[in-house]
Write a structure and sequence with these properties.
alpha+beta, Ubiquitin-like (UB roll), Serine Threonine Protein Phosphatase 5, Tetratricopeptide repeat, six-stranded mixed β-sheet, six-stranded antiparallel β-sheet, globular, EC 2.7.1.137
């Protein structure tokens, strides 16, 4: 089949046998030149049908909205979707006839009429997404509609390969070693209680190195011995009693997160034996579109499009034949309603953008601001059209020129211009066509940080236009027009063994780069590394040191042996690949071709995951670069995908187009795993509701997932979204009822309970921050309004039935706060914990559940059996309790055995305190007052509320409230045996643990920095510029040796011990003033 597809690209004529989807199933054949377009194929079919009188309305065949062209391949129906596509590039099943011509069979079928089922489906999807995509779709070939159809392919492929049982019963397992404090327990048999419906419950002692199937074998034996019947016709699976969590697969029992939790908390283990047939059905019931092939945005190679040589007809022009420079004629802009504060003088800046980089800029002449401003002038760039890459954007900004003061000269205003409005356009569109002719785009108002900007570099990355056309500025401009479509060729020339890509002749064979190849690297003939490499920007010493011998040498001939050595040594430069790629001139086509050859021959598995994540960042918009990064992510486990999912969703904003390797990867991984899918839904939906610049992109990708996630997931999402909407309404009403900052009347709980009683909360729903936990009926008498500025709601719900009488399900619902910063910190704590766990360092972190469920709304998990340090101190002396060094010690002692504090309690306190000291120092977490630090009854200290990070400290009355690197107060040291400045074995253990934890993080410093840099895309106020990364680099002492870094952190501990009294003083002021 692939051979036929290749041959179709070199044939002069092609034959199509067309069957009409009518009562008679009439058939006709058409033969036309292979460089013709699909529209010309339709024209031939229409003319032939009219001649043979075999169709009632031949002219309607020309309209793709009325008639579709379909073919079958691998038992699937495909639609020939793009009328501009060259027929030689169609990946239809070709057959060589006896006459020697290639032929293909297609069906001409009336377009489907929207059914009632489809409308119901659209209503469901619009509700879950929080956005109506159908209202935005303007044309079948616009990017939105085109992407919706293209994403059908990865969804359908994933669903074909999906094992429904594994998908439904996916377990939550840990890849890290078993914690040291659980080692003794896993060496001996442990009791596990099995329950089967209401028929039988029994306990068995099992070695935790056994697999779940051993428990099922015990179950079958007990049932047989007892003479009890059970469902033997269907597979059985173990489910945690009272939780949506399964114990399944070929993993040791000690690997399951729930069993580890039970061991650590000395909790009995209860499992249900469930028939798989009784579980909620994950059938996909949605009606899907026919597939469209991945080559539908490809047209032909440059050789087949070039204007030189023998061509029968010109159908379209290769961009590489356009030798003129890019230019744009600025016509003007109009604004329906002038702003309250109008600028006096403005100008328009037009820029060529690649990612966030400005490659070339031209400014218009200044004009007085008015409702309509006209220019009618050409702006010319120093960028050749033939050098344009996919993803290159044309950006427009309207800028204010500040008025010149009496004693100022115009030059003094230089650089003080204020950006007012912006909008961008892809010069090469999603179908690889050059944008031509007149365009009118509706612009966005530029918001600064104080006004609530919500996306970093949106003015350079987003290609969305303002949907509020009635109120927004509309800019009109003209691009050069051609008589034919101008296309970026879909292939790069590949040289023979003696020629580099940049010097390959036009007659070279072609290599297709398509989205369908995201699973494998293309096969590319090894070229000479061309002299274009020597023309690149100079590479700094570190890069030169890591470059394989001869890599930048133009004399190196990479024959087969050379290519083998290149691949063997490629690991030497993979770590500095981001630095190398950042030095390139991406508007030089010859350089880009050489680099694409290089990337095509890289082995993705040689890339470190950190490097792959970095290559998905804002500095690397090139499709082949991002493709290589995504290929590396393919081998990640579901646990690792979850670890980086927060950042991966954000990096979708960097993609030039809606349809991308990354988008397809995320959709496939979400469809493969219910765990990944659950969080993918909420992370993406939060961006749909809160980020207008990328709303359409996030919505179309989320739709692609929802169409295949299965009915049970859809039903669950509907209940969750309904719960969030109801609670959001209650929270807003509560804030309006109690507008005071902190004071609440005695009636506040009763008013809240009344609102909740009258709300339409679902009877049960999975928690958005933890899909293993289901909340039941709300417990009204336990709900309250919390006394802080945003009036968060403390809510408790009935848990699911369980033999161990679990605590109520507790959540804090917040309205008015952006929880994405808290999500980032908690995610980073989990990454830190995984780094430490790999080194058998269990520091008892408490990464509680936290999720943003929309713009400035979200949920936080309530940690049970824990109180704030402030509450402990108040209980022993009111506000002066902040100075009681023994307050925490006495409280912990009251929770443990009589007479003295228990050894394990102190050990847990020392470890957790060390973990949070290191974590809060590295992340620069500020505002560490005693209401933001909590401790559990068994001594586990943890921090909450991460509103200030990366060294951004809080001030009170103009003074900095932070005087120490992290919180290590005299009362903490007292618990460790450090009363009155004495040292102790526990304090020494604390120091040793801190330095081990700190040095472990230093070895993963680039990962931590990369995770934070990718989150710049959120627009979080305290993570808004690349300069914010400096704090992390300094805190991790990247430039120092390990010995120097260890000494540095010991000095930070000594500083905290010395200045601990200042923290106590701050805590006293905090309690005295009631500051939150």
């Amino acid at each position: 089949m692939s051979a036929m597809f290749t041959q179709s690209r070199t044939e002069k004529n092609l034959k199509f046998i067309c069957q009409f989807h009518t009562s008679n199933w009439d058939t006709l054949s058409v033969i036309l030149p292979s460089q013709c377009s699909v529209h010309q194929l339709r024209l031939c079919i229409s003319m032939q049908a009219q001649e043979q009188n075999c169709h009632p309305d031949p002219l309607s065949i020309l309209d793709p909205e009325k008639y579709t062209l379909l073919y079958t391949k691998s038992e699937d129906w495909y639609e020939v979707y793009d009328d501009h596509q060259v027929i030689r590039t169609l990946d239809v099943p070709w057959t060589r006839e006896d006459t020697g011509i290639l032929s293909a069979q297609i069906v001409v079928k009336p377009a489907a009429v929207e059914s009632a089922e489809r409308k119901t489906q659209e209503q469901c999807l619009n509700y879950l997404i929080g956005y109506n995509l159908d209202n935005e779709a303007s044309d079948r070939l616009d990017e939105l509609t085109f992407t919706r159809r293209k994403l059908t392919s990865p969804r359908r492929q994933e669903l074909k390969n999906r094992n429904d049982k594994l998908y439904t019963t996916e377990p939550w397992i840990a890849s890290s070693p078993v914690p040291n404090d659980c080692q003794d327990q896993i060496k001996r048999n442990h009791p596990i209680t099995l329950h089967y419906m209401d028929k039988i419950s029994f306990s068995i002692d099992v070695n935790l190195s056994a697999c779940p199937k051993v428990l099922l074998q015990y179950f079958a034996k007990v049932m047989a011995d007892q003479g009890l019947e059970y469902d033997t016709d269907n597979d059985l699976v173990l489910k945690v009693f009272g939780r949506e969590e399964f114990i399944s697969g070929d993993y040791a029992l000690s690997s399951f997160l729930w069993l580890r939790h039970c061991l650590k908390t000395n909790q009995d283990i209860h499992l249900s034996v469930v028939s798989v047939s009784q579980l909620e059905e994950e059938t996909v019931k949605f009606v899907d579109w026919p597939l469209i092939e991945d080559s539908s945005n490809q047209f032909s190679s440059h050789h087949n499009l070039c204007l030189e040589g023998d061509h029968l007809d010109i159908v379209m022009i290769s961009l590489w034949d356009c030798h003129r420079y890019l230019r744009v004629k600025l016509l003007g802009f109009d604004i329906p309603k002038l702003p309250d504060k109008c600028p006096q003088t403005i100008y328009v800046k037009a820029s060529v953008l690649f990612g966030s980089k400005v490659l070339s800029s031209v400014c218009s002449s200044p004009k007085a601001f008015a409702e309509e401003v006209l220019w009618n002038e050409w702006l010319e760039f120093d960028v050749l059209l033939q050098d344009l890459q996919r993803g290159t954007k044309l950006g427009f900004t309207i800028n204010e020129i500040p008025p010149v003061g009496k004693d100022m000269v115009p030059e003094q205003n230089k650089g003080k211009e204020k950006l007012l409005y912006f909008v961008n356009l892809n010069i090469i569109d999603h179908r690889s066509l050059l944008t031509q002719g007149p365009n009118t785009l509706h612009m966005w108002s530029y918001l600064n940080v104080e006004e609530g900007a919500i996306t970093y570099q949106a003015d350079k990355l987003s290609t969305a236009t303002n949907p509020d056309k009635a109120e927004s500025v509309a800019i009109t401009f003209l691009l050069d027009s051609y008589s034919f479509p101008v296309v970026l060729p879909d292939s790069l020339p590949v040289s023979n063994n003696s020629e580099p890509p940049s010097s390959a002749t036009a007659q070279s064979k072609s290599r297709t780069i398509s989205l369908s190849q995201s699973q494998s690297s293309p096969t590319i003939a090894p070229p000479v590394i061309s002299s274009t490499f020597s023309h690149m920007n100079p590479v700094e010493a570190p890069l030169r040191n890591y470059t394989p011998p001869g890599f930048l040498s133009p004399e190196l001939n990479l024959n087969r042996d050379g290519l083998k050595r290149f691949r063997e040594e490629s690991i030497l430069y993979c770590s500095v690949l981001p630095h190398y790629l950042s030095t390139l001139d991406w508007m030089n086509r010859k350089i880009v071709q050489d680099v694409h050859w290089l990337l095509g021959n890289c082995n993705p598995e040689e890339l470190d995951v950190t490097v792959a994540l970095e290559l998905l960042g804002i500095d690397f918009p090139d499709m082949m670069v991002r493709r290589l990064a995504v290929q590396r992510l393919e081998s990640l486990s579901n646990d690792d995908v979850l670890k980086y999912l927060l950042q991966l969703v954000q990096t979708l904003k960097v993609e030039p187009y809606h349809d991308s390797f990354l988008a397809r990867y995320l959709v496939r991984r979400a469809l493969r795993s219910k765990r990944v899918g659950h969080f993918f839904f909420w992370y993406t939906r939060s961006e749909v509701t809160g980020c207008p610049y990328f709303r359409q992109r996030m919505a179309v990708i989320l739709e692609a997932y929802l169409l295949g996630c299965g009915q049970a997931m859809l039903d669950s999402f509907i209940q969750q979204v309904k719960a969030v909407e109801v609670l959001h309404k209650v929270a807003k009403t509560t804030k309006s009822l109690f507008p005071d900052k902190t004071d609440l009347p005695i009636s506040a709980p009763l008013r809240l309970q009344e609102l909740l009683r009258n709300s339409q909360l679902p009877h049960e729903f999975l928690l958005p921050f933890d899909p293993r936990v289901k909340a039941g009926r709300i417990l009204l008498d336990k709900c309250k309004v919390m006394a802080s500025k945003k009036k968060p709601l403390w809510l408790e719900f009935c848990p699911m039935p369980s033999p161990i009488t679990p605590a109520p399900v507790g959540i804090i619902f917040k309205e008015g706060d952006d929880l994405r910063q808290d999500m980032l910190v908690i995610q980073t704590l989990m990454v830190m914990d995984s780094i430490w766990q790999e080194r058998s360092l269990d520091l008892n972190l408490v990464p509680y559940g936290c999720i943003s469920t929309g713009h400035n709304i979200g949920m936080i998990e309530i940690v049970r059996n824990a109180v704030t340090i402030a509450a402990i101190q108040r209980s022993v002396g009111g506000t002066t309790g902040a100075f009681r060094n023994d307050a925490l010690y006495e409280w912990l002692r009251s929770k443990g055995p009589p007479e003295e504090i228990h050894h394990t309690t102190v050990e847990r306190f020392v470890k957790s305190c060390a973990g949070y000291c290191v974590a809060t120092y590295v992340l620069g977490i500020g505002d560490r007052h005693n209401d933001n630090i909590m401790v559990t009854n068994d001594g586990n200290l943890f921090h909450i509320d991460f509103g200030h990070i990366l060294g951004n400290t809080k001030h009170f009355l103009g003074m900095n409230r932070e005087h120490v690197p992290f919180v290590l107060t005299p009362d903490f040291l007292y618990v460790m045996g450090g009363a009155k400045g004495r040292s102790s074995l526990w304090i020494q253990a604390f120091r040793d643990t801190c330095t081990r934890a700190y040095l472990s993080l230093r070895s993963h410093s680039q990962l931590l920095i990369t995770l934070f840099s990718l989150m710049l895309l959120t627009g979080i106020p305290e993570l808004s510029t690349s300069e914010d990364m400096r704090y992390l680099r300094k805190a991790l002492q990247e430039e120092q040796s390990e010995t120097e870094a260890k000494e540095h952190f010991l000095q930070q501990i000594a500083e905290c011990e010395k200045m601990g009294w200042t923290v106590q003083a701050n805590w006293w002021i905090h309690m005295l003033a009631g500051i939150k």
